Each structure stands twice: as structure tokens, then as C-alpha cells.
Amino acid sequence: MEGNIGELGQYIGVGLTAIGMGGAAIGVGNVAGNFLSGALRNPSAAAGQTATLFIGMAFAEALGIFSFLVALLLMFAV
Amino acid sequence: MATEAHGEATGLSFHPMDQFIVRPLFGDGPVHWYTPSNVTLWLFAIILATLALLVLGTRGRGIVPTRTQSIAELSYGLVHKMVGDIAGKDGLKYFPYIMTLFMFVLFANFLGLLPLAFTVTSHIAVTGVLALAVFLSVTAIGFIKNGAHFLDLFWVRSAPLAIRPVLAVIEVISYFVRPVSHSIRLAGNMIAGHAVIKVFAGFAAIAAVAPISIIAVVGMYAFEILVAFIQAYVFTILTCVYLKDALHPSH
């Protein structure tokens, strides 16, 4: 059992950032699910809204990407 | 796809992040800005692929398009419709730039998926320049087209006066975070996908889990083909959204 405590904290921190990605996963799933339930109610309007779907997904995903970035920085840059 | 170094340390025969190392094409010297490296090679390949599709592919100008020609026409039509729908008719003036961005990112993502290839868009240096160019040009367009009215983007007139300063702060922050999220979304997706494939590939060395690992690699690869297109699409669509904000800043 040797090694420095800073490295321990670093790896724990990287693991904790994975929770942030889980949040983004919930967000993206929410966007897609709500789009689908709306699209099934009114299929004729769905085709025009795919761009909005992707924009919404991109915004939801961005925050997960930020946590992924933090993980990468912790692993390789700090 | 290095085979050296990390071997003993991690137990894997290669490190998942080794594929993103910039190496000189010839010899082993240090990489300067003028050194021909694997990045140079694949940037060149992207330009060649784009030219091959859009110039050579449509050379025949057939009434009944060949397969290559219809792919070129489909991608042109996709981006043209996107710009027209989102940025509006006056945004079509900037269509050539957005088409260039789309084709560059698309081919960078797709060529990066070839075995032994280098994914140019996995580097934040590359996507950062793309996103910063979009950010700066869109801001310039906003100020040139609308003058001081461009600042209406931050001063939400439809909201009650009391909360407008708070909204202004939030809007300013979200405006300046744009190039960051724009670039990191693309680079992060590419890094993550390729690293995951490599991690699964690393498990193939262990006989007991090798079949699962190979199936996982195939599955992830198929998913990455989808992601490569979607990220190029998202990058372009967000550029259109930013352009729309610059052309019509009032909410």
C-alpha cells in the first residue's frame, strides 16, 4: 500500500466526473423521449422538427462533454 | 497506434490514447509548426476526399446521377436546406462557408474511422480554430449587419425590466461559452469514441473475453459511424443557429 495521496484523489475525482456524464445521459434521453412522444401524437409535424431535436440534444450533451473534459484534464493534464 | 512504451505499465499492449499522438511523418525529430506530421497527411487527405466527392463526383452532370453524384448532391442539398431553414433566406449568403465547414468536419470524422488513421477532429487545437473562426465571424457579421442593435441579443426586451440585468449576465456568459462548447463537443465525442474502441480492442488480448470484446468493437464502430455524421451535422447546425442569432438578434 504505497503511492501518494494526490494521485488517489485524482482518480477518485475522475470517477466522480462520470456522474456528470450520467446527468447528460438523462438529459439527452429526456430530449429524445419527449420528441418521440410528441412525434407519435402528430407524425406530420415531426419531420420539420428533427433539426430542433438535434440542437436540443447537442445542448444537453454539451454539459456531459464538459464533465468528460474535466475527467481528461484530471487524468492527463493535472 | 503505438506498440511501444506503456506495455508493461498498464498490462495493455497499447495505450488507448496513443492514437492521438502527433508524430512527424519522416524520422523521429521534434514536431515544429512546419514539420510534415500525420496531421498534415490527414488534413491533406480530407481536402482530397472533399474534392473527389464534390468536384470529380459531379463532373458528369448526369440527368440521372451516378451514385457519387447523388451523394454530392444530397450533401449539398442537406446543408443548403439547413441554412435556409435555420438562418433564413439572408443567411444563404454564408452558405459556402457553412458547406466548407460541414464537408471538412464530415470527412475528418469519417477518414479518422479508417484503421490506422489519425482523427484530425479529435484535437481541440483543430476544432478550437474552427469554432473560434465561426464565433469571430458570426460576431463580426452581427455587428456589421445590426450595429449596436446586436446587443439586443443580451438585453431581453420581452422579459420584465427587473430581471433583465440578471438575464443579460446569463446571456453574455452563454454567448462566450459558445466557442468552448462548440469545439469541445466535437473533439470530446471523437476522443471518447475512439478511446472506447481502443479500450475494447485492448481486452481482445485476454482469451476469455476476446469474443465479447470483438463484438463490442464492431458495435462501437458502427455506432461511431453514426456519431461521425451526427457530430458533423450538429457542428453545422449550431453554426447556423449562431448565424441566425447574429442576423436577427431580437429574441
TrEMBL record, chain A:
Bilayer topology term: Multi-pass membrane protein
The keyword Transmembrane helix appears for this protein: yes
Protein name in the entry: ATP synthase subunit c
Membrane spanning residue stretches: 12-33, 53-77
Database matches in HAMAP family: ATP_synth_c_bact (MF_01396)
Coarse class of the protein's main subcellular location: membrane
The V-ATPase proteolipid subunit C-like domain, residue ranges: 12-74
GO cellular component, one term: proton-transporting ATP synthase complex
Manganese in keyword set: no
Molecular function terms, GO-annotated: lipid binding; proton-transporting ATP synthase activity, rotational mechanism
CDD domains: ATP-synt_Fo_c_ATP5G3
Localization: Cell membrane; Membrane
Family membership noted in the UniProt record: Belongs to the ATPase C chain family.
InterPro entries reported in the protein's UniProt record: ATP_synth_F0_csu, ATP_synth_F0_csu_sf, ATPase_proteolipid_c-like_dom, F/V-ATP_Csub_sf
Highest taxon of source: Bacteria
UniProt source species: Paracoccus lichenicola
Primary role: Key component of the F(0) channel; it plays a direct role in translocation across the membrane. A homomeric c-ring of between 10-14 subunits forms the central stalk rotor element with the F(1) delta and epsilon subunits. F(1)F(0) ATP synthase produces ATP from ADP in the presence of a proton or sodium gradient. F-type ATPases consist of two structural domains, F(1) containing the extramembraneous catalytic core and F(0) containing the membrane proton channel, linked together by a central stalk and a peripheral stalk. During catalysis, ATP synthesis in the catalytic domain of F(1) is coupled via a rotary mechanism of the central stalk subunits to proton translocation.
Keyword field: ATP synthesis, Cell membrane, CF(0), Hydrogen ion transport, Ion transport, Lipid-binding, Membrane, Transmembrane, Transmembrane helix, Transport
Site residues by UniProt (Reversibly protonated during proton transport): E61
